[in-house]
Amino acid sequence: MxxxxxxxxxxxxxxxxxxxxxxxxxxxxxTLQRPALTWRRILLDPRWxxxxxxxxxxxxAYGPTPxxxxxxxxxxxxxxxxxxxxxxxxxxxTVHNINHHEGQHPDLNDQANQWIFARAxxxxxxxxxxxxxxxxxxxxxxxxxxxxxxxxxxxYPNEIGRxxxxxxxxxxxxxxxxxxxxxxxxxxxxxxxxxxxxxxDLPDAALLLxxxxxxxxxxxxxxxxxxxxxxxRVIPHYVPGHEIQLYCNASxxxxxxxxxxxxxxxxxLAFSFGKPIIAPAIGPFPELLGDQERxxxxxxxxxxxxxxxxxxxxxxxxxxxxxxxxxAEARDWTTIGAQHARVYHQLLTA
Length: 350
Prior knowledge:
By secondary structure, this protein is α/β, with parallel strands linked by helices. The chain has 2 domains: 2-150 and 332-349, Rossmann fold; 162-329, Rossmann fold, CATH 3.40.50. Helix content is 44%, strand content 16%. It contains 15 helices and 12 strands. A 6-stranded parallel beta sheet has the order 2-1-3-4-5-6, with helices on both faces.
């Protein structure tokens, strides 16, 4: 069997980890990765029986794309997918996002979702909340497989201890450190996090926001909110893999104040470094945190973010961190790859 993985995402190693996990679990499955559909390589090659798509929304609108161009791209993609199915290929779609995070071309997002949730041979989601959302919004119930997101253990170096990491980042040893790591985008609620941190007035705490910002106006907005506060550090650039350990190991916990989420690789990254998280009670987070064994949930309008930031300082973070690491360890990519391999075989023998 041959499985072809299509994804334009370059900085997140998710698809590479999945493809490798599938092949380790079932060496009879050959895997190949490509950024986009191409007629020559895919449509005319009879070996590829499984086509596993990721992040469909950036297949037709990769970066700022005029609506007319995005519509043309989407029409072409759907035509290709229809051709593939009519020639015996099976389409698997992993739901990373149901809605485009920046709300770009919402009509095309819905058109793409209508097609893929009606026509894909299998839908893969990372949690039960996403499965419910797919069913409620698009009526898809059959061949929806819940297979969790894998961990990032061993993907990035993890050799620097807490004291050394703090020294490298010039963070006082006694500070309580909140971290939000990853590309900075409005849907992640970083403005609310800065506001909540300022509301608490914590002179012995630090807030680190580290990650690439592609929207300069949003970067200015975050800087204005942070002002000249000495304990808020906005680091607006891509964090290379070898530096991720600095931020994770220097922190006490990670904060993911998202306004919208379908899944969360950021949570699995934190767990892989043994860090509990603070997150809202939406989407994947209640399932990821369990009964708050692996972090703390806040409920907008009930227990707000400012209250939870303060509460975290008295929490048993060592126990939560150990539970988070154990949770991540159970989600190794070979085990997850075996689950995907079973889906592929099921599709080809149905």
